[in-house]
Structure formats: C-alpha cells, structure tokens
Specification:
mainly alpha; 3-stranded antiparallel β-sheet; 3 strands; globular; ABC-3C_MC3
Length: 165
C-alpha cells in the first residue's frame, strides 16, 4: 500500500506503518484520556501529517486551552501545505491503521471512532530517544490527541484547519 511514487525510498522507510502506528497509538491514548468514546476515524488523516511535519509540530500550542482557531490565526504560514500533506500521507495513515487493527491494538466502533483495545504498549520506547525528529513527532502526536479531544467537534477541527475530510 505504500508503493507511492511521491515518496523516496528513504521516506517510505521512515514512514512505515509501525512508526506512524505508534504515533497514532500515542495520540489515541491522550485523546481517550478525555473522550472515552474514541477518536473519529477521519482525525488521524490530519493529526499524523501535523505531528510528522516539523514546521507544524514545533509551533503546536503547549496547552489544550489554546483554541484551534486562535492557533491557526497565528500560524497560517505553517499550515499552508496541510491540505496537500494530508492527501499525500493518506496511504501512510491507512497502512498504519491497518497495522494497528491487525495487531488488535485498536478497533473501529460502530460510530466510526477509533478506540484503543490494548493500552499496554511502552509509553516511551528507547528508539524515540535516539532521534530528535522522532522525539518531536511523538511529543506532537500526544499534544494533538489531547488538543483534538477538547475541540467542540470534528467538523470544527477540519473547518478551522482549512481541510476537507
């Protein structure tokens, strides 16, 4: 599923389903701490590109009290390519969701939400401490999970970020 010519061989190696899947797992863990019903299945398709993109991840707010709308207003430049990134990471995110589903780490509820089934994975794998970029992406994915869980609705998140589901 990841034989996408828009990525180099090196990028495909870095964007493997296990790596992105762990970022998604971490985001879901934080999301479910506030909203037990799980994350809407469309949100990973913008959450993961935001966590991986260093230009976006380094300017994320440090608290969930910052509204998405106010953050977008002060970071429009960083978000200029979010729509195209969300499209280009589509197969990467799908593969990661499939990877987690196949290993019974997550499930998809009848309402379309992603829920964690296995919360016993290591929270801070050693591998993530060896790379500043991986560490930043993990920190960002957790923040995005917390942040999105406090948004009024999925539609609000997409509308304020300027992305169509």
């Amino acid at each position: 599923m990841l034989n996408d010519s828009s990525f180099s061989d090196e990028e495909l190696g870095l964007l493997n389903p296990a790596y992105i899947g762990f970022l998604l797992y971490s985001s879901l863990l934080e999301f479910e701490a506030f909203k037990k019903e799980g994350m809407n299945c469309a949100l990973p398709f913008i959450a993961m590109p935001m966590a991986i993109n260093k230009q976006i991840s380094t300017c994320l707010p440090t608290t969930v009290k910052t509204t998405i709308g106010s953050w977008v207003a002060s970071n429009e430049g960083a978000l200029a390519s979010l729509h195209s990134q969300a499209e280009s990471y589509n197969n990467v995110v799908k593969s990661s969701i499939s990877f987690l589903l196949d290993r019974n780490v997550i499930s998809i509820c009848e309402n379309g939400n992603l829920r964690l089934e296995n919360k016993s994975l290591v929270k801070n794998p050693v591998l993530f401490t060896k790379s500043a970029d991986m560490k930043e992406a993990l920190k960002a994915s957790r923040m995005i999970g917390r942040w999105f869980s406090h948004a009024p609705s999925v539609e609000t998140i997409f509308a304020q970020l300027g992305v169509r589901p």
